[in-house]
Amino acid sequence: MAPKKRPAPGLPTRKQILDFIQNSPVPAGKREIAREFGLKGQEKIQLKALLKDMSEEGLIDGKRTAFHKMGGLPKVTVLRIVDIDEGEAIAVPDTWQPEDASPPPRIRLIEKGRGSALKKGDRVLSRTEESNTGWRAYPMKKLALRSEQVLGVIEIDKAGKAWLAPVDKRIRHSSAVSDLGGAEAGELVLAEPVGRSARASVKVTEVLGEPLAAKSFSLIAIHKHGIPNVFSEETLAEAERAAKMPLSVEKREDLRHLPIIAIDPSDARDHDDAIWAEPDGEGGFDALIAIADVSFYVRPGGEIDREARRRGNSVYFPDRVVSMLPEVLSADVCSLRAGDDRAAMACHLKIDGEGKVKDWRFTRAIVRIHEVIAYEEAQARIDEGKAEANLQNLWACWKALAHARKKRDPLELELPERRVKLDEQGRISEIAIRERLDAHRVVEDFMIAANVAAAKALEAKVAPVVYRVHETPSREKLVALKDYLATFGKSLALGQVITPGLFNRMLKDIGDEAEKALIMEAVLRSQTQAYYGPRNEGHFGLALGSYAHFTSPIRRYADLLVHRALVDAYHLEQPKPQGDIPATSGLSDRDRDDLGKVSDAISQAERRAMEAERETIDRYVAAWLSARVGEVFETRITGVQKFGFFATIVGLGGDGLVPVSTLGDERFHYDEKAHVLSGDDTGTTYSIGQFLRLRLAEANPLTGALKFELEQGGGRVEPRGRPVPLKKRGNHMVGQRGRPSNIRHQGRKKR
C-alpha cells in the first residue's frame, strides 16, 4: 500500500484540523493529527501550541472537536460577554461560524455569589447546558482577550520606530509596529496584535489610506464595528437575476391609476414607502400605504436573504449608505420611483373622522408612483396654497390621524437631530439641526397606522409576528428618576400606572426652559431601549398595544419578516421559482419555528448601526470644529460624573468633556442622585441641562473626541499625546510621531 500523501508542508491550518477531526472515524487527538499531516520534531511542538489556542477559542474541547452548529453548543466552550442585564452577564460563543448564517445564541452566565464579576468584552471558558428557558453557562476560567484588529494611524518617531495611534478614544496607549505591511507615516490602517501581552506590538493587515479624507470617518466606523459592507459575487449575481423576475399583473391588485406620492429626504436613493388618501364621503378617509414588495425579490434561504439577515439593516453615514440589499434592488427595482411600475405590498385603511382605523386589508399590488417629493417641497406647497388635491387629501387625513394620536398621548420628547452636509468633494459644507416639519409628521403617522395594522392583521390570523417592543421603564430607573426629580422639589408617585402622558404633563408644566431641558434629559435616560421580539410587550413610547415594523423592508430585515408573515397568513401571491431562486416568499421553517433567534440578531445589528452612525457624526463634528479650537461656544451640560462633566454645543451637537481637574484648585463633590458637581468652597454647581459658555480646547476628528475648558479661570486641558512636528501629506498635515494633537494646528492653518 502506497504511503498516504501529506496534504502540505508545514503546520496545517485551523480549517484543515477541524475538517480532519470532523471526518475522522476514530477520536482524533494530537498524535493522530500529527500523523495525518506528517509532522515531526519542532512541528509537533508548534502543533501543541496551535491546539491550545484552538481550545481557548472554543473550536475544540482539548479532546475532540466541538463544532458550533445550529441546535447545539459544545459542553465546554469559550464565551464572550456582550451585555450585563440586571447584574447578570449575557454572552455569545466567541467563535460562531454556522453553515446557515444563523445568529449566535444569547447565553445567561450563572455565577456564584451576588452580582456579576464579569464585564462586557470578557472571554470566559464555560460549561454550557440548554434548559427550557434557553441556554445557560457556568464560568470555569476567565481567559485573556483574543487578538482583535485595531484601527489606527501610523506614526514614526525621531528614532525611526513605527507606532500605531488607535482611533478608539477608549484605548489610551500607542502600540509599537513590528510589521508595517507597506504602510507609511500618517496612513490609516488595520492592525492585529502580535503576542498575548497587553503591550504587545502589532502588525499591519490592511492599509486604508488618508485618515482625514472624507471617506475615512465612515470607514473607521465600518471596520471598528465589523459592519459587513461588501457583497459577495454570488449575492450580486442572484440580485441581478432576481431583478429580472417579471411581475404578474393578473395576480396583483392594479393600483397604477392612483396618484400615490412618496415623500422622502431630498437626498434619498431608496424609496420604501408612498401614500395616498381621499375622503370616503362619510366624514372619514380611504387611505393607502404602498410599501416596496421586497419579499417578492428576496426569498428565504437565498444568497441575498442570508446576507440581508447578517446585516440586519442598512447603515446611513453622511458620505455613504451601507445597504442591507444590493444596489440593483435597493436603489432600483425595489425602490418606488416615480413613473415606473413597481411591486408593492399595499396596506388599505379605513379611517374615520376621529382618526381611528376602522378596518384594514393587505394585498400584493402593482403601483406607479405619481411623484417623489422632498419633505421641504411638500411643506412649501401646502404652506403656499399650491398643493394639488392628492397632497391636500394627505394633509386632511393626517389631521384626523394626529387627532387620534393626541388622544393616545404618546411620549413627546424634543430630540434634535444633527445633519451633516457634504460638498461635491466630500468636505463638510454645513452641520445643522434638522428642521422638524409637519410633512415629517404626516409620513410618520401614516407609517405608524400601517405598522399597527400589520401587527393586528397577523394577530387576527394567529400568525408569527416580529414585534417592535418598547417596554415600560424599569422600577430601578423610575426610582432613580424619582430621586432626581426630588432635587427640583418635584414628586413622582411610583404607585400609579406609569404612562407616556404622565411624562408629557410633567414636561408641559415646566415653564423654565433650562429646567425643562434637565427634566427631559432625565426622562430620556429612564426609558428602555426598543428591540425586536416574537412576544408582544407593547410599545410604551408610542402608547400602542401592538406594534410591528412593516414600512421599510429595503433597509430593515424585521420589516421583511413581517411581509413574509403576511404573505403566508393571507395567502398572497406565491411567485413561481426562477432558476435557483426559491419559490416561496413567505417565512422559512427555521424562522417560523424560532423567531427569537433572528429577532435577537437584528436587534444587535440595529444597536451596532446606531453606535456606528453616532460615532461617525461625532467625527465629522470634531473635524468641522478642528479649525475653531480656542473659540468660546454656548453649550449645555449633557452628563455629569465625578471626573467632570460633558457638554454639547447648542445648535450643533458634539459632546465634549470638561475634566474636573480643569475647574481650578477648588475641591468638587459629586452628588450621584442629583447628577451635580458642587464646589466645596464657592458652592458653584454644574448639573445636567445647565447652559454655560465654554472654550473649545481640543477637537480630534479621528476619535470624535472634544474637550472644553471654562471660559475664564480654572486649569488648562492638556492635549492627549505630545506636540509633534508636522509634515505635508496630500491636503493635510500629519505628525511624524504622536497622535493628532496636531489637528488643532491643522485647523488653524486651514483657517
From TrEMBL:
Residues covered by region (Disordered): 713-751
Keywords tagged on the record: Cytoplasm, Exonuclease, Hydrolase, Nuclease, RNA-binding
Domain S1 motif: 630-711
Main location: cytoplasm
Localization in the cell: Cytoplasm
Domain of life the protein comes from: Bacteria
Protein name: Ribonuclease R
Organism from which the protein derives: Novosphingobium indicum
